[in-house]
Amino acid sequence: MKKAILALADGTVFEGMSFGAEGERTGEVVFNTSMTGYQEVLTDPSYKGQIVVMTYCHQGNYGINEEDMESNRPWVEGFIVKEPCHYPSNWRSTESLMGYLGWHGVVGISGIDTRALTRIIREKGAMEAVISTVDADHASLVQKARASKGLVGRDIVKEVTCKKPYIWEEGLWTLWKGYRGAQQAPLEKKFKVIVYDFGIKRNILRNLVSAGCNVAVVPASAPAEDVLKAQPDGIFLSNGPGDPDAVPYARENVRKLIGKKPIFGICLGHQILSLALGGKTYKLKFGHRGGNQPVKDLKTGRVEITCQNHGFAVDLESLKGVAELTHINLNDNTVEGLAHNELPLFSVQYHPEASPGPHDSQYLFGRFVKMMEESKR
Amino acid sequence: MPKRTDIKKILLIGSGPIVIGQACEFDYSGTQACKALREDGYEVILVNSNPATIMTDPTLADRTYIEPITVEMVEKIIEKERPDALLPTMGGQTALNVSVKLAEAGILDKYGVEMIGAKLPAIKKAEDRELFKLVMKKIGLEVPRSGHARCEAAAIEIAEKMDFPIIIRPSFTLGGTGGGIAYNRQEFEEMVRRGLECSPVQEILVEESIIGWKEFELEVMRDVNDNVVIICSIENFDPMGVHTGDSITVAPAQTLTDKEYQALRDASVRIIREIGVDTGGSNIQFAVNPETGKIYVIEMNPRVSRSSALASKATGFPIAKIAARLAVGYTLDEIPNDITKKTPACFEPTIDYVVVKMPRFAFQKFPNADPTLTVQMKSVGEAMAMGRSFKEAMQKALRSLETGSYGFEKIVRKTRRVHSFKPAVEEVDLIKERLKTPNAERPWYICEALRVGMHVDDIYELTKIDRWFLNNLRDITELEEGIYWQSKTGRVAPELLRKAKECGFSYRMLGALMDKDEEAVKKEAVDAGITPVFKTVDTCAAEFEAFTPYLYSTYERPFYHSADDKAQKAACEASPTERKKVIILGSGPNRIGQGIEFDYCCVHASFALKEEGVESIMVNCNPETVSTDYDTSDRLYFEPLTFEDVMAIIEKEKPLGVIVQLGGQTPLKLSVPLEKAGVRILGTSSDSIDIAEDRERFDRLLEALELRRPESGIARSADEAVRVAGSIGYPVMVRPSYVLGGRAMEIVYDEMSLMNYMSRALQVSPGHPVLIDRFLQNAIEVDVDCISDGSTVLIGGVMEHIEEAGVHSGDSACSIPPYSLDQGIIDEIRRQSILLAKALKVVGLMNVQYAVKDGAVYVLEVNPRASRTIPFVSKAIGKPLAKLATKLMLGRTLEEIGFTEEVRPAYTSVKEAVFPFIKFPGVDILLGPEMKSTGEVMGIWSDFGGAFAKAQIAAGNNLPLKGTVFISVRDEDKPPILSVAKELSDIGFKIIATGGTARYLRERGIEAEPVYKVTEGRPNIVDRIKSKGVDMVINTSFGAKSVADSYSIRRSSLEFGLPYFTTVAGAKAAAHGINAVLRGGLDVKPLQEYHNILIGQ
Fold first, then answer.
1. pTM for the model
2. Is CATH 3.50.30.20 the right assignment for the domain spanning A3-147?
3. Which residues of chain B does A122 touch, with a Cβ-Cβ cutoff of 8 Å?
4. CATH class of A159-376
5. What are the residue ranges spanned by the domains of chain A?
6. C-alpha atoms less than 13 angstroms from C-alpha of A147 in its C-beta half-sphere
């Protein structure tokens, strides 16, 4: 089997086996602790610019299927696993993980001590790295990792957002019926929602549809004026990759929308909304990526287990007097949710659409709909 | 929400004796609950009849009742203690059942006791299958089609709507007792009858079979704020149709996509809410159709379980401890995660390794039992292993089982030299049969199938084991093949060797493939830089720092830690301290003969080390135990107890010594190889251990000490055996020289049987001699446990057995103090014990077994290690012997630790054994030299009769106080049974007896109604038992024919739950016990009060 090398900016070098595509990729190396859901992770546009190491030691066990895609292609720069599976076993599987990665040009490395790598990231923070099957020179690879630009200040949203507006109609589906063959139950769609696509996952769109929304998706750079012209009942700000400070056009557009329409933001959308409200964001040491993060809803006192994927967070102090904290991460007390003190705006740092991850937070889509209902009255 | 302040005193119910389906996992959960509740300032009242548990240590609860777990006894405890609350979810089905009965009888209401954790309606909803079905339907979940039947006709009616196979499950039984899978009408009818008999409420569930579906389990927790988290998902290697306790199980789930896993998670959350388990943990089982993904809910346990213990060990999340705290009102977000310290317990653990649990069976002990694995649990223990791949974890689990396996050995044509082979037709048939019918060796047969070139799809069709698992096994057999050929044609490439170690191959297994010894393979690996590293179990896949050193070994590829590194280094997380430290080797999976008692001893060693300021390092692989709780010792290595795995830890930790004498035979077997490798064995030397185990050296020692033992000899052929037996005189006790724990031991009464035995023994193990001892008939057996610091010896306890010599000591009831022996004999036994301990220079514990016959004392056996009875003796005398012995092993003297005088309690403690016969249809319940019991109970009372009666009740032999006793004894037992019959008759029992016995009794003035033997006509004794006309059975028999004739009497007594006695001594003790109950009734008293008596003495 062909060798692959992973070199980190701090000088650590792992020699492993190549899987997926051959070549060389740089990116910020981050870890994800979900034990299931690699397909959703791979196809989540928020991972653009990043090399992902999965902490669970077996990946690819259930193959790749057509239904669990969160977008039309994988976005990760590189994929690191301890043991990839050559013989997927699941009734929905249509191809193997390595086949899929190879086809889409994702460079992977396997067989390395992924736990040691995770500990390095935990201790030193997420850092730039390179995976290569073409360069065997360690010094040269470490140099390449160090030279990589990193995420801070870089607009990656423009690389993942849709090129043209489109309408989304598919709702949530049940597993054993499948959504392809099954007839969608006609949903009563009461609200018109315009979705800013900063790198959206399909399951957010499905959740909005199932909550009763007519969903129109627009590119990240769509001017606020055009959006308002369409007279939506509410505006949704999606998740997406990278540094929220690096998309000033999004911030400026959102600023113009504040107070005009109810707004709901998730992840990058939450950060952009916070920036638009005058807040600040900062980079976390190694971020939150996984499906087991506990978040407390401060209103109800209930804890939900959430799916998360973010490297930046909102500084609560910077929004004092403007927005109140609604959700908090119980592991490190970082901001997980905010609501404006007066206006119908709220946002969460985590992913209520799950996929992958628990469904505990789906209620937030209902909350958005309720907000639109109230502001219509 | 903070903890509740309206409750102060909590009653905790344990699970009683170890039985199949309910083992030491409930000692683990109960111990955690005790500790957690007391740390929170609650007063804990504990009841458990099992003395071998840590939880019944007098220091663990405020008041500890070692009393039978029956409604009557628990009511007495409630009346006396007036607890505010009852926590019913920590003691398995036993605690749950008795709690339900207490609630339904109005006893809890009467005394104002609140059930916490799970309330009665929730328990009912989860346990009553009809209710459960309705509840599942209500929340949109499906269960297999089924119906309840209270009679045969109703069962047939339900079955007519389904296709075979059909599953029969009796209601309210442990581990599926009496259940089965019927493939045709005839089997169905038989199983329905048995199921109805086994169910305490005479009710069975008839269920559509989903054999072959994938099986999953989720461990769920909920708090009072309705927060719900999933602790662990488990996927069964064996598909539906094999009881989960008998299945190989794997954590986390391997073959589900996130969508499918979340569907199970959503269902679990809905189920725990709808069933209404307020707080605590539950286990929910699902079946998933492998072709369509359709989900069925199988069952829910509204309590901690065997699976929750496994999930706790698999993830590092202590379910029982957290469940106890949730029960008193805390919420999940208020409880810290012990391992990370900085994050709360309100999260879902994520792991970065694979966990494999394998069951351990005891079919060799029950040759007549059907070894097919079904929905009725048959395994007696389990081992768990962790690795960074399924292959590694699986192969580590194989050697953790200690069944002599070190990997996937050849099992068809074992002696073949070639690896892959072309099988004969009958070999293919055998393999196919073993794949099709679930059995304990199936994984080995799967590997053989792969070796003979069978395709994974064909194996799947036969086994329905997911292809993912099968392909992993194929990886293993392909690696074997590679190693075999490389070593045959030259040298095994280091890369291949590394790959093999990463996949969990043991040195021993590699040695077999490479035709080298273990040591040589190890050298080759080490020279190539292939050594194990240790990784931490941290609940969070390294996302946060872990503060609890709970470790497992694995093989990881080294890497360059910095750009300037010239060499690669693997990352090891063990980071040993510089402190003074000692390694304790645990006892591995539970099995008959080696169970929870030894875990108790190891845990005490850990306590002792802590008190002495020495770092304690525990090594064990049994997930059910207290010893593998991460906060028992300073460091925990969850590893197989083989020489290879233990040495890896020793090389890393460099302890000052290793304790081998507390974990039973498992660590003791390692003492010689460890010492050879330069490891210091603490306490009694391995040479002394060898003297005790080597027959010839031991004989010389006894001779030198002028102690008597039964005449004996060794035979290597049938002729020699006959000669030796002839000179000793029949009956003789025979056994192969290499076995332990009574395996294949038999009492032989004549030359014919001896020849027969020899032909079998020589066939099984050619070349091994057979030991022949004179069998002392009707001798009284005595066990002694003593403790020594090397110069002073103290007797811990002298135990007189109830059953005569010839019944394995583990199966015999016994009493402290002796109840019938003369003081002179007891003193002689004391003298001999002290002499032996001194001669063997014992430092620590020693156990001696004696037989007393006609006033003479014979030494039967010496074990210079902790024995099975240590926890029992410790509780009887109020001294923690294992803990004290550990201190002696560290160099303390008895005087220094303040133990200078033998304790002679003024009350009596009786230990009784508990047997698994009900789980094995077709097996006789007669006792013999081969141990068959799985657990034990203890009864304490001011006199022997009362203590014996309590022990019987605790063991489930509900002694009748009036009614009819059936007596049938062999001729030589007739004189001694007379007094028993008289005693019973005098206190009002009606006696019925078979012809000979009846005549004998009547001739001597005791009224006895004759009744037919089974062979004599009808209605016979079995009919009488079945029509519930008998309340107790006394039956001794001798000789093959008589044993066979009376088999159905014993079996039907067992199945109808009648107390039965198969020895005169047992019957005599029972009569005393009944008398004691009738005279004064039995009251309850906590262990702490008994121990206060000793201080006052």
1. 0.95
2. yes
3. 542-545
4. alpha beta
5. 3-147, 159-376
6. 7
